[in-house]
Design brief:
This protein is of the alpha/beta class. The protein is about 45% helix and about 15% strand. The chain has helices spanning about 5-10, 20-25, 45-60, 90-105, 125, 130-135, 145-150, 150-160, 165-170, 170-185, 200-215, 250-260, 260-270, 275-290, 295-310, 310-325, 330-335, 340-345, 355-360, 365-370, 380-385, and strands at about 15, 30-35, 60-65, 120, 190-195, 220, 235, 240, 350-355, 360-365, 390, 395, 405, 415-420, 425-430. The strands form 4 sheets. The chain has a 6-stranded mixed β-sheet with strand order 1-6-5-2-3-4, sandwiched between helices. It has a 5-stranded mixed β-sheet with strand order 9-15-14-11-12. Helix 4 (about 90-105) links the parallel strand 3 (about 60-65) and strand 4 (about 120). Helix 12 runs antiparallel to helix 15 and helix 15 packs across helix 16 (about 310-325).
Length: about 425
């Protein structure tokens, strides 16, 4: 496989230094991408970079994933309008452990292959680097004029930031540049990759290597992923879409991909899956014939959810979706774990009901009018039950005065009431 050609047809190539493609065609190359350890989980904003490393390894090259244990203590000003909070070492260690576990799902770190991936942490080589040594060995090679010309610096200095640019942030490009130099000298790394907003930092590293020992290295960037309407990719109303199920449940993760627009799905399936070109083109053609079937979105959601979580998590997410949007059986509902149940029905009206009263047994008509105002009146409820329009835990309520008790509770805590086709209510026994 030709790595550059693979990125090109997938829409994952933004810019590269002259000679990069020729280098990759003639020899096995070591390259790295850096990740900020600002949380103990990656989010889908990182996925494009992760997939680039995955393609790189599949093409026979050696990927390095650099965790910015040192640079994460400072914060990269690129694309930012305010300085980041600085992290302590204990938090950084926890964050790095979480990220390594996730990266292991995409990259081969453990085999004996000569191109097995490596995880490196720039804190390891920066922690004993004194300020005087840094000033002498790094700072003297790059002029302030060169650093000031970078877009990330100019934008912050030209009034886009309320508080300007601190010296700490100004030095960031030198620190990242030194990472490249260190990996070049210790691991023969000749290529740095990243998002297009990193071009300035990457080229500073290449320039530092050229000025310190005359070495020739290369750079390659991918475009920043956006939505078709120009909006920011990977953000929802509740924030980032995380890879860790503690922060974004597999159901919500699956739903994010399932709900992207047609134009975005055609782009994202190339970027965020390992499907081949012919299969993707066939899927796009099939989708165009019948867009309402959402073939692209369904396949995209499946591929990414299985890759990030598991086949079992994907199947559970599909089953959960069917409960909310399709038929969905009582048995399927009872199989949902509590976190998935709450994810599926997030945003539906919730009412607390007395566990003691429910344990003693209470008529559905009293439960759903007096204890939880699902219906405005008992007469309204009777009429809807008689018309077959009320379900409890996905089972049609045959009689409005049926007794409900603690045995009906899902996970020993919840009752799901459905009124009509689309109106759900979650009753929580406390």
């Amino acid at each position: 496989m030709n790595f550059v050609e693979e990125l090109r047809w997938r829409g994952m190539l933004h810019d590269m230094m002259p000679g990069t493609e020729e280098l990759l065609a003639k020899e096995k190359v070591t390259a790295y991408i850096g990740f900020d350890p600002t949380a103990d989980s990656l989010h889908i904003g990182h996925l494009c970079s992760v997939m680039i490393l995955r393609h790189f390894q599949r093409c026979g090259h050696k990927p390095l994933a650099l965790i910015g244990g040192a640079t994460g203590m400072i914060g990269d000003p690129s694309g930012k309008s305010a300085e980041r909070n600085l992290l302590d070492e204990e938090t950084l260690q926890r964050n790095m452990a979480g990220m390594k576990k996730q990266l292991g799902k995409f990259l081969d770190f453990d085999s004996d292959a000569p191109n097995r991936a490596e995880l490196v942490n720039n804190y390891d080589w920066m922690k004993d680097f004194t300020f005087l040594d840094f000033a002498r060995n790094v700072g003297k090679h790059i002029t302030v004029n060169y650093m000031m010309a970078k877009d990330s610096v100019k934008k912050r200095l030209n009034g886009e930031a309320r508080d300007g640019l601190s010296f700490t942030e100004f030095t960031y490009q030198l620190l990242q540049g030194y990472d490249f130099l260190h990996l070049y000298e210790t691991k023969g790394c000749r290529l740095q990759m990243g998002g297009s907003d990193q071009w300035g930092n990457i080229t500073t590293g290449a320039e530092l290597i050229r000025r310190t020992n005359g070495g020739e290295v290369f750079a390659l960037t991918c475009p920043l992923i956006t939505k078709a309407d120009g909006g920011k990719f990977g953000k929802t109303e509740s924030g980032n879409v995380w890879l860790d199920p503690r922060y974004t449940s597999p159901y919500k993760f699956y739903q994010f991909w399932l709900n992207v627009g047609d134009a975005d799905a055609a782009r994202y399936i190339k970027i965020f899956t390992a499907l081949g070109r012919e299969e993707i083109e066939a899927l796009i053609a099939e989708h165009e014939q019948a867009p309402h079937l959402r073939v692209l979105q369904k396949r995209l959601a499946k591929e990414v959810t299985v890759m990030v979580h598991s086949l079992a998590d994907y199947e559970a997410a599909v089953e959960a979706s069917n409960i909310l949007f399709g038929g969905g059986t009582s048995e399927a509902l009872k199989k949902l774990d509590e976190s998935t149940l709450l994810s599926v029905f997030e945003g539906v009206p919730q009412y607390e009901v007395s566990r003691d009263t429910l344990s003693a047994g209470v008529k559905a008509v009293d439960l759903l009018t007096e204890m939880a105002p699902v219906f405005a009146s008992k007469g309204e409820m009777r009429k809807m039950v008689q018309g077959g329009g009320v379900s409890v835990n996905k089972e049609k309520l045959a009689a409005y005065d049926r007794v409900c008790n603690a045995g009906d509770l899902l996970d020993g805590k919840y009752l799901l009431v459905q009124r009509g086709k689309k109106n759900y209510y979650l009753l929580i026994a406390k």
